[in-house]
Amino acid sequence: MPFKRILRELVEAVPGATGAILADWEGEAVDQHCLYDDYELKVLAAHKGIILNRMKELQATVAGDELREAVISTELQHVIIGGIGPDYSLVMTLGRDAVIGLALRRFREAATSLHKEIY
Q1: Which of 23, 58, 65, 108 would bridge with 45, disulfide CB 3.0–4.6 Å?
Q2: Number of Cβ within a 10 Å radius of residue 119
Q3: Per residue in 71-82, is it b (16+ CB within 10 Å) or e — as a string?
């Protein structure tokens, strides 16, 4: 499966992107492409997966659409997290200078491609 290619293309398509990882329902890395320490990205993905699952649970308690993705901004970076079907999540890390609108568009395209490959 071309997970690595999809993740690499996602990171390369967004100036300021630093990594992307596909994780399973337990927070374990399936594949990743990273411009820094892979281990740090794996730990980040596991923690962000917990946040994504909690946000999905909260969203289910109110009327509205299903949660697609969320952007978390810190002093040092932006992180985009989103679900790939019910069992996987995609996490993308970006520097603070990255254009979030472009990152979200590319993130959604990658999520669609990953979904097609998995399901």
Answers
A1: 23
A2: 10
A3: eeeeeebbbbbb
Phi, psi (5° rounding) for residue 2?
A: -85, 40
Closest to 90 (Cα-Cα) out of 100, 80, 105: 80
Token pair belonging to 52:
């994504």
Q: How many whole angstroms separate alpha carbon 83 and alpha carbon 76? A: 24
* Distance separating alpha carbons of residues 111 and 79, to the nearest angstrom: 15
Per-residue pLDDT reduced to its tens digit, 5-49: 999 999 999 999 999 999 998 888 999 999 998 889 999 888 887
Which residues on neighbouring strands pair with residue 82, listed in sequence order?
69, 90
Q: Which domain range does residue 81 map to? A: 3-118
> Which tokens belong to 12?
């390369």
Residue 30: CATH number of its domain? 3.30.450.30
DSSP states along 6-49: HHHHHHHHSTTEEEEEEEETTS-EEEEEESS-HHHHHHHHHHHH
Is pTM beyond 0.70? Reply is yes
